[in-house]
Automatic annotation (TrEMBL):
<dbReference type="InterPro" id="IPR025110">
    <property type="entry name" value="AMP-bd_C"/>
</dbReference>
<dbReference type="InterPro" id="IPR020845">
    <property type="entry name" value="AMP-binding_CS"/>
</dbReference>
<comment type="similarity">
    <text>Belongs to the ATP-dependent AMP-binding enzyme family.</text>
</comment>
<dbReference type="InterPro" id="IPR000873">
    <property type="entry name" value="AMP-dep_synth/lig_dom"/>
</dbReference>
<dbReference type="InterPro" id="IPR045851">
    <property type="entry name" value="AMP-bd_C_sf"/>
</dbReference>
<protein>
    <submittedName>
        <fullName>AMP-binding protein</fullName>
    </submittedName>
</protein>
<dbReference type="InterPro" id="IPR042099">
    <property type="entry name" value="ANL_N_sf"/>
</dbReference>
<dbReference type="Pfam" id="PF00501">
    <property type="entry name" value="AMP-binding"/>
</dbReference>
<keyword id="KW-0436">Ligase</keyword>
<dbReference type="Pfam" id="PF13193">
    <property type="entry name" value="AMP-binding_C"/>
</dbReference>
<feature type="domain" description="AMP-dependent synthetase/ligase">
    <location>
        <begin position="13"/>
        <end position="339"/>
    </location>
</feature>
<feature type="domain" description="AMP-binding enzyme C-terminal">
    <location>
        <begin position="395"/>
        <end position="468"/>
    </location>
</feature>
Length: 482
């Protein structure tokens, strides 16, 4: 059935109930009609518990169909839905639940079933769009909810704007696509992409976790057309033996979207050499959403860029005094958009501190080229100043990762009486390697002042479930060990 003119999941499910909506982690298929019936039952169940427009529901759920049910159920009755990382400790979870003032918390499939039990499967009355409220990672202080105003209109009036935006950025269109979920669905990008895959009428195939070869097998088995990944996944896939790579047909892939962390040029080029020009990248944050994007052929023409401003966005780069910098000069990145507004829940001071008038700073240092393409240098908080010179850890990490015996690496700055800070590299090897071999590898790739003064080896390095390196944790552990 042609669903290209239908405005999102609810309309698609009503018109084409037999369409496959979800392939769950156990391989079970769920149709759009059955998924909508469950969504409607949960919507009625939440209303029956007294929840009204603007109230909050929290979900502490592992990957599966249930997070999608909660997204779509809250999304049609004007509620905020807060996905919570189930890896967090109990005190960390309790803080988020208190801060968001969740009136209902679902922790497992049985809780979702209890909401649906005995409820009608027809549409709820007075349907109005809800919103997802993600909590920031809390690298400085406690995490805060990023809250956007509710639209005050039914979902069918709101969804087309967002599906248009995603089409412009990622070339994703309504139709017979298959989306693969590779990351925890409590994170903003995996959550948003799985939700909008349903709004596009795609089938959502859900992996329980990321493992390189099983992910390739899912792509082959279900003829996956699009997925969202992060750079560390690419690095791990490139380490697969050639005979394993050749076992799987990946020709169905048309769009693999990546975000969350800087992708080393060699890693991205390696994946495109293998999969073809299918990597779409965007840069932003939970607060700014998708602020910059780059399609495969533009990236191949400008390796390393994260693209130009996304539709409705403007960007500028400022120095420490607030003066705008010319092309090629690194500084703090600021963005603004007429359709993207947010506030930190119950924290107007933090909201104000993150803004410069209408402009928001994601916290990264970068520069624009003459054509307006953005190149990132690093996080402001990770910048190393050694001997008065700015050094960007991400650049050093990218160079070290090109060594075939390196599985992962974290580069940090540590206090140095003479230089202010010195560069330290903590390396997770994938095979036999020495510090001397790594320095020899870097000789032709990095200027001497950027090369690590110290290289130490670690069995593992802390990363978030979406692949972001926890440099703060690395630095804290290293300094404690000294």
């Amino acid at each position: 059935m042609d669903i290209s003119g239908l405005p999102g999941f609810y309309a698609i499910a009503a018109a084409d109930p037999g369409r496959v909506a979800v392939i769950d982690v156990d391989g079970a298929a769920v149709g759009y009609g059955d998924l909508l019936a469950r969504v409607n039952q949960v919507s009625h169940g939440l209303r029956a518990r007294g929840l009204n427009t603007g109230d909050v529901v929290a979900g502490i759920l592992r990957n599966g169909a249930d997070p999608l049910v909660m997204l779509m159920a809250t999304g049609q009755i004007g509620l905020y839905y807060v996905p919570v990382n189930w890896h967090l400790t109990e005190p960390e979870v309790d803080y988020i639940l208190r801060d968001c003032e969740a009136k209902v918390v679902v922790r497992e499939a049985a809780d979702v079933a209890a909401l649906a039990e005995g409820q009608p499967s027809g549409d709820p009355e007075e349907r109005t769009s809800g919103a997802v409220m993600w909590y920031t990672s809390g690298t400085t202080g406690f995490p805060k909810g990023v809250q956007r105003p509710l639209a005050g209109a039914e979902p069918e009036a709101v969804v087309p704007l967002y599906t248009w935006f995603l089409g412009e950025v990622c070339d994703l269109r309504p139709g017979a696509g298959v989306h693969l979920v590779t990351s925890p669905m409590y994170h903003s990008s995996p959550c948003a992409h799985s939700q909008f895959a349903l709004h596009l009428g795609h089938t959502v195939v859900i992996a329980p976790r990321f493992e390189p070869e099983p992910i390739l097998a899912l792509v082959d088995r279900y003829e996956v057309t699009n997925a969202m990944m992060v750079p560390t996944m690419f690095h791990r896939m490139l380490q697969l033996p050639e005979d394993v790579r050749q076992k799987y047909d990946l020709s169905s892939l048309a769009q693999v979207v990546h975000t969350a962390a800087a992708c080393p040029v060699a890693v991205k080029q390696g994946i495109m050499d293998w999969w073809g020009p299918v990597l779409y990248e965007y840069y932003g944050s939970t607060e700014s959403t998708i602020a910059f994007f780059v399609k495969p052929r533009d990236w191949l023409a400008r390796p390393g860029t994260v693209g130009r401003p996304a539709p409705t966005f403007e960007a500028k780069v400022l120095d420490e005094t607030g003066a705008e910098l010319p092309p090629g000069e690194p500084g703090m990145i600021y963005v603004k958009s007429a359709i993207n507004t947010f506030e930190y829940r119950k924290d107007p001071a933090k909201t104000a501190a993150s803004m410069l008038g209408e402009w928001y700073a994601p916290g990264d240092i970068g520069y624009l080229d003459e054509d307006g393409f953005l190149f990132l240098c690093d996080r402001r908080t990770d910048l190393i100043v050694s001997g008065g010179v700015n050094i960007y850890p991400a650049e050093i990490e990218a160079a070290i990762l090109e060594h075939p015996a390196v599985a992962d690496v974290a580069v940090i700055g540590v206090p140095d009486e003479e230089w202010g800070h010195s560069v330290v590299a903590l390396v997770q090897p994938s095979g036999p390697v020495t510090a001397e071999a790594i320095l020899g590898h870097l000789g032709a790739r990095l200027a001497r002042f950027k090369q690590p003064k110290v290289i130490e080896f670690r069995e593992t390095l802390p990363r978030t479930p979406t692949g972001k390196l926890s440099r703060g944790k690395v630095r804290e552990d290293y300094l404690a060990g000294r």
